[in-house]
Design goal:
The structure holds five protein chains of five kinds. Chain A has twelve helices and one strand. Chain A is mainly alpha-helical. Chain A has one domain. The model of chain A has no long low-confidence stretch (mean pLDDT 89). Chain B has a three-stranded antiparallel sheet. In chain B, strands 1-2 form a two-stranded antiparallel sheet. Chain B is elongated. Classes of the chains: A mainly alpha, B mainly alpha, C mainly alpha, D alpha/beta, E alpha+beta.
Chain lengths: 302, 1043, 117, 230, 175
Amino acid sequence: MDYSITKFLWTLLGLFIVTNWGMLMSSTIRRIGARVSGRIGIPWYQPWVDLTKLYSLKSQVSHGTMFYLGPVFRLMGGVGLFLFLPMIFGSWHWSNYSFSGDLVLILYFQLFGMLGMALGAGEGGHPYSTIGVSRGLAQFTTIEVPMTLAVISIAIQYHTLSISQIVAAQQGGFFTWTVWTNPFATGAAMLSLLGAFGHSPFNLIQAPNEIPIGPPTEYHGVFLGFLRTNNAILHVAEAALFMNLFFGGATNWIELIVKTFLIYFWSVFVGMVFPRFRIEQSVRWFLKIPTLLGILAIVIFL
Amino acid sequence: MVTPIYIVAVILGLAFLLGILKSSMTRLGSILMIGGLVFITFVSGQWLYEFLVNHRATDIIYTAGFLPPYAINLQMGLNEAILTTMINIVGLLGGIYLLDSLKKTGINSMAIFIVFVMSLNVIVMTRDIFNLFVFLEISSIATGGLILLDNKRKAFQAGMKYIIATGIISNFLLIGIIFSYYFASSLNIDGLIAANLMSIKGGAIALFTIYVSIILELKPFPANGWGIDVYTASNPGISALISAGSATAALFVAYKLMPMGGSFWLPYFAIIGAITFIGSNLMGTRQENPNRLLGYSSIGQVGLILMIIGLSPYLGKDTLLIGFSILISHYAAKAGLFWLSGIIKSKNIQGWSALRKHPYLLFLFGTFIFALIGFPPFPSFFGKWNLIMALAAHGQYAWMTAILAGSFTEAIYLFKWLGYSIKLEVPEDITIKFEWNKYLPIYLMGILLYFMGMYLAPFTEGGVYINFLPLAFVFLLFALDFLPVYVKNTLSIAGIIWYMVRLFPLLEHDLMREIFAGIFLGGAVLTLVAGYAKKGKRPGFYPMALLMFSGLVGLIEANTLLEFFFSWELMTAGSYFLIIRGKRSMPHGYSYMLFSIGGAYAILFGLALAYASGLNISLAALGHITQLTTLAYTLLAVGFMTKTASLGLHIWLPGAHGEAESDVSPMVSAILLKAGVFGLMLLFFYMGTGTPGSEKLLYVLGWVGALTALSGNLGAVFQEDAKRLLAYSSIGQLGYILFSITMMTQLGWLAGFTYTINHFMFKAILFLVIGGIVVKLGTHNMYEMGGMIKKMPYSFVAVLISIIVIGGIPPLSGFAGKWLLYNAVIQKGWYFQGVVVFFAGVIAFLYLFKLIHSVFLGQLKDNHRNMKEISAWILIPSYILIIGIMVFSAFPQWVLKPIGNMLTVYFPKSLYWQGTRAFTSLGYWDGTTTMIVVVTAFTLLLGWLVIASKKVKRIGQFNIVYAAERPYRPETTHVSYNIYAGYKKALGFLVTPVVETFWENVSDMVLDFSGWLRRIYSGNMQNYALHVVLFIVVFYLIALGGL
Amino acid sequence: MGYIIIITGFLLVLIGLWGILSQKNLIKIILGFTIFDTGINVVMVSIGYVKGKTAPILDIISAKDALKSVVDPVPQALVLTSIVIGLGVSALMLVYAIKLHHDKKSLDINNFKDLKW
Amino acid sequence: MEKENKPQDIPVVKTKNFIAPENEKRTVTAPDGSLIEVDPINDYFCQERPEEYKVKSGAVEKFLNWARAESLWVLGFGTGCGSIEIPPLVTPRFDMYRYGVQMRPTPRQSNVFIISGYLSVKTLKRAIRSYEQMPSPKYVIGLGSCTINGGMYWDSYNTINRLDHYLPVDVYIAGCMPRPEALLAGFAKLKELIKAGKAEKANEYIRNLDWYKANQKKIIKDWNMPDYNW
Amino acid sequence: MQQIIQDIESRFTITDKETRRNDLCFLTVDKLQAISLVTYLRDYQGYASLTLLTAVDWIEEGNFQLTYLLNNPSTRTEIGVRTMIDRENATMESTHHLWENIQTYQRELKEMFGIDFPGSPRIDEDFILEGWDNIPPYRRDFDTKKYSEETYFPRPGRETNDPSTYMKSKLYPND
């Protein structure tokens, strides 16, 4: 419970690093994707350029208060996830405000941003926004099932819900990572991660070809800039969460960067291979193999 | 002292006098008749006074001066005094009621009438069986004569059937009497008892004949077609007299003759009584004619009392009290109902909605119905309570089941009837005109019921503790019902606050009770504040709301099983009336009532088992159930779960809560449901984990809770009706609570308490606000709303905060529940249940988004443009609750710490506090810090946005990018209807209404069965005669077949 | 002798019952009732009967041997009452039969089934 | 061939006021029974005129202009046959992403509007609507000769001849049809203009709004929308 | 095919007959018989599919020629039914009860030629031209060039060349 200004500044620095890393990661991933299809792809600095442009647009419109607040909620979701997550194991500087709560807090804080986005998009009054939100929420419900199973499984495994302690329990070598000690939970969680990142085949929420971009249809300018900032932070934070839970955490930024990159790449990799699911397909899919893996992950501890 | 012989003498004299009067002198005749009736009422009343006040000894009156057997003797004891008074009162009131008809048919009918009343008196008093026979015959001849009063085809037929049947029966009685005399050489009952006929060879047959005749006089099922026809066809005044008077007398005969045969016959009495009770009530379920329905009900009640007589060995000295309690309820209620039916003159029970224009008569009607079912504070409640307790003490579970089953079937049709009369359109062709002589008897009977209820309460063990104070307040408000709404509202709130101030010191720091008292009474005040928004008088609302709240507060105060059950039933009654006030809520109120009564009977059974285990009436007896322990706890849990609407028992809730009025929904949802939670918590407290079988029970209930949460939430997702959505959400939330507390750990219970408090707050807000909006917009359908955020920003904020709490999103208090539950689940090892519950928690998001989006966001509809914010009276309580939520969210330790400490007495401590930080062996959470972090970060980000987006233009409703087109209408642009179609495709199979179908099938089966069964009443009088004969034969073969 | 009377009485009872249960004509049913009544009265009298004793009427015999020479007086008294009551019942039944006939011009019992279920 | 060309004799087939049925005034009943008059055009749409934004100068603005130039988000709206030339841009052969050009599905998130080929009156209406919904600064590229002078449809009764009378055009790409390379060259030109601070046509549109509107309304008789689509 | 035509000739008054290919022929009938003929073809001869409905403006004769082109999917043959309607009062019975898709053609003809099909659904709605208030543009008396010049701000400096002379002058400037 450290409310000192030093802590605040360190956290801000961490946030800065994470945001930039998130943007770099996304451009890198897109470049990799381009190379796979034989293109050169965007310049590595493209996300910053886009963001700068979005923040410097000259005209903005708003549909109402909630529309205005929606991006704030959304960004708060990402920032909050970062704030409540210890980034670097054993480091006071990079543990952020993780003393506020444990894994459960983080799991539920994800909803904060989703809710804000949903409401903001809703006030936009655009039908596609609502359709996108309804799809997103529907998919999210079943994404959570394998995730919950996996979380419970590792809580049983490590007798704790505290992320720092979970990471601490994985220290001691490559083979003490959860991915080896509890492969089923890892499998379930990594499959549910696919849905959480929303790449193909689970990108029906934004589905640009059908419901132009989904929830953020009406968002532009600074609002969209907020959403993009959030994406950068959220991707790193979620990957860092998975890193902490399953891949031994990180003791320094390099390790964090490598691991989060690989975790994020996993979802992109899958996305490059598979076409898009319809919503009922994805809802059902998460209740099949991932859930089964999750159940196995618990059964082995019974 | 006037000896009772004058009853006979004066009436006979009067009858002869009336006979010689000229037929035109009806005025004198009626004065004489009433005078005679007043006189005999006075005589019996005077005796009653003597017995009650002066404790006079039983008196025997010898008619001819000889001792029996040489002369007939009459006995006048306490019982006789009570019964003759009852008979004479109903005779007198009936005489007043029938005055017009009697005047019309002439003086002779008046003579018959008083002779009839007199004969019933003698039947009660006489100790000579031949005399008994004679007066039975006189009474049935008189009845036959009185039936002729109504010059109607149906009355003739019914009378004929009656005479044929009673003729056969009395002839058999005569045979029995002859043989008894032959074997015992005595016609005196005492002499016959002394002779012990059962020991004499052949005496058993004589006794059998007597008994079977007496039983047949009571119209046992199924040999009672003739009796029902009489009830149906004769003048309601006569039916009232038959039902209240003849049945009373005949029952006393059965009681009087009982010692003759000893214990051999009692089981048969009980069996026949039980069959009659259940059978004729079952018949009633398909009945639409009110008089016939009352006939079935009368016969059922008589069957019940016959059963009580038969069960007297188990009941011991309480037999008379129990029998009397039920008899007096039946007596007053049935007389009142028959008289009412004479006023309304409707061919079917739907026509009784004519009562709606006459609130006092409607109130009386409700009184009679509730008295018949056995609701407090009526005598039958205490009767049934004592009956069940005594039976349980002797382990007579089958009889208990039979009684409760019969009572339940009775409730089926009585509440259908009540519901019709409250809710159906007032028929145009039925007019009720005021006639004092018809109103007065009904009023008196109603008052008698309340009086007797209060009078009999102390006779029951633990009854002296019952707190009638809240009930008195209810009556006060009923009396003040003519006042405008704000006066009554203020009065109610003031009363509740006063009671709260009075109550809290009495709770002696019992935290659980304090919390629930806070929810019940605090919630009451808050929801009543919203009532200021209503205009007009809201007739009947305040008494009923307060009745419910007095029931709820009674639950808190209860120290004994009786008080608890008493309050439970009061609460049920009050909430029934509240629920049924909604526009379309008749079927829902009905199913609510049936489930409630079913649940209440399960609770009663359980409480009886608790009582039987130590003959201890205190609530602590729940902790020491030794009789059928698991069954008892299961029944209690199921009973409470009907109130919390757990899976399988939930089908009443969506309709009942969804269709209720806008400020009733929060009462029943946010507050009333907590009564079930309170019951469950109390039960689990006392049950503990050590009791045999409790582990399994808890495990099953845990799964039930988890699945309830899932199905409730899933059900809500696919709702289009805003209030039903909230109702389904309540089912889900109550599922969480059930699940949490079945874990029986400190964390689980803490989660349970957190959910309870949260649910109270957010559901009250949601139902208040959404209810207000629904009223304002004039529709329940969410897809017809939209865009309300611009018109009702305060409502939006209230709803937003509530849904954040429901979703369990940090930093608000909903997360406390989720965090505790996570820890509890992992600690307890209920992983899969936990996953189901958490899955349900995420599903909650779907309906929450649907709710807030469809109502507040999206497109504003054209016809809602001029909407204003909902009434401040609704917003004020909502915002008070929001402050509560905020405080709970920022400082959860203020609430959770004391609860945790309280729970450490019962469960091992597993939640620790370190300042604002809570931690368990698994994880930690700091509500205050979370709040600070989130609020700070949010403010910073908002500030950033404000700076970064310098100038933002507010644009119009249709200024959306619409693929370069423009929207057509708001209605077609607002996405709300069936927005989770894809989800339905994937998981819709989970919401197939299995439970509804199951209960529908059950009810269809019952109704089909009763429809099939009632074909025995073919209407042919010869068949009825055959039934009587067959009854005798079958009874003989069963009872004495071996002899 | 006594048994014969009793058996006769019971036979009458059974005939009466048979009449009540099998005849379709109301008048015949009422007749059945009277036969039933009669049978019961016969049974009653026979029960009080003691061989060789006379009726308990004090005019015929002296009061002092009354106890020795008369039959049990109670059944006799009962029979009288019973006959009176039977008469009343029969009268009432006939009244009803008249009313019913008035209503439907029929005495067939199957025609009076307006009330059922 | 004898022509009897008497237009005045021919009955005018269409005699209507061109107000779409959904835009006609109507009355609805509020839940409390009162009547509400709905005037769709005025009620549903923002009626205000747009304002010009300030064009700043200086190093910061230069940087921002560079960012705007390097991040061209193209609205995916193909009007004519030129729209078939745009998809190849995302293929490995042309790969517009490397120039910071991306496609966006909604006008709210786009800066560049490519009018790809001939523009019928009906499509023009949609194009105006989309253009006005784009946030400033925004740029228009006229693709193909049809947008310049009508091209082969120059004498058509239903196709506009000059795009710049209706929307402010930053860059024309001549040709019928220009190949994707030409489009890339057009992007490059646009970037040049933006970086030089010369691509402020959005302001020009607002400044000359009345003129544009007059031109637009001259041919779009079935206007049925507010003057400016926010 | 020939059989069918003979069969039709025996039933209807065919004023003109033109066989283009083995599987395509055009029959001209009177306006009054046209609907019954297409109905007959649809119901009895298997020409169930409407390929198109189109019109030609014979301004010199003061007529519009309507052509219903019907297709028989089983024999893969097509018959076009032509009928002349008066230009001044251009009205034709609607056949949307035979083919739902003909509504669209009829709307188009209404808009482009001004031929009315009373009763056809949405016939009065705009089809392609939104807000057209001139002579229907496909009528030959509508001068599209003039209209375009008046309406669409022609860019000055446009030259129009005859392609053959222009190409010749470009390729062989010396000739």
